[in-house]
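Structural prep section.
Before we set up the soaks we want a predicted structure of the protein with fe (iii) ion in place, mainly to decide which crystallisation condition to try first. Input record follows.
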Amino acid sequence: MEIKIIPCLNDNYSYLIFDKNKKNACVIDPSESLPVIKEIEKNQLNLKYILNTHHHYDHVGGNKELKKKYHSKIVGFKDDKDRIPEIDILVENNQIWKKESFEAKVYHIPGHTTGHIAFHFIKEKKIFTGDTLFSLGCGRIFEGTHEQMFNSLNKIKKLPKDTEIYCGHEYTLKNANFCLANDPNNSKLKEKIFKIKKNLDNNLPSIPSILADEIECNIFLKAKNLENFSKLRDLKDNF
Ligand code: ZN
Ligand code: FE
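Run finished without errors. Recording the tokens verbatim:
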């Protein structure tokens, strides 16, 4: 499975995954259609599926146009069927979604929104976490509770340590500064920040991140309990 990281809008990432031989593709969270179309045409792909992690406009903005152009099917969480534009296939927690050569496990990870999900391509060791887990951060709690977000992050934390994290935004450097302010003696974090800066200076994404690194460096994954997590999450809102 090949993957292309597509920068969209200001700081979003959409991800195109495809089978190089059969030319079938899925896009995860198309914020907008144009940059995605460009990449599809460049690689001469058939966009079979559009996978949405949640209903926010910067994750579904390209749904309608891409579906119209490529006759793709849109996959999203069953409880969000009324707010994910043009949804076709409803998935639920712990379901294995399998089509063509694509196979992903779906996790319901509420907190940022009540219907947020992640797609975990187990064989490829890649997870698409939308706005729940970011590199060195986590999403704002808009609809859910702190407890839901804490539990959702703990679910991801239990996955194999070599899992690659593909998240919805390039927030890594801002997140890094918050981690450093609250965890100033973490040498592993300092090392990671050095690498992140090098990528960004070269106009490259800081993504993917490896789960093992996140567990050691991401202050939200290091939170010992709900109380500690909630305090950090509130601090970050005003950082
Ligand atoms: Zn969002
Ligand atoms: Fe977002």
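Observations: The pocket of fe (iii) ion (ligand 2) is lined by residues 56, 58-59, 131, 168-169 (CB under 6 Å).
Flagged for discussion at group meeting.
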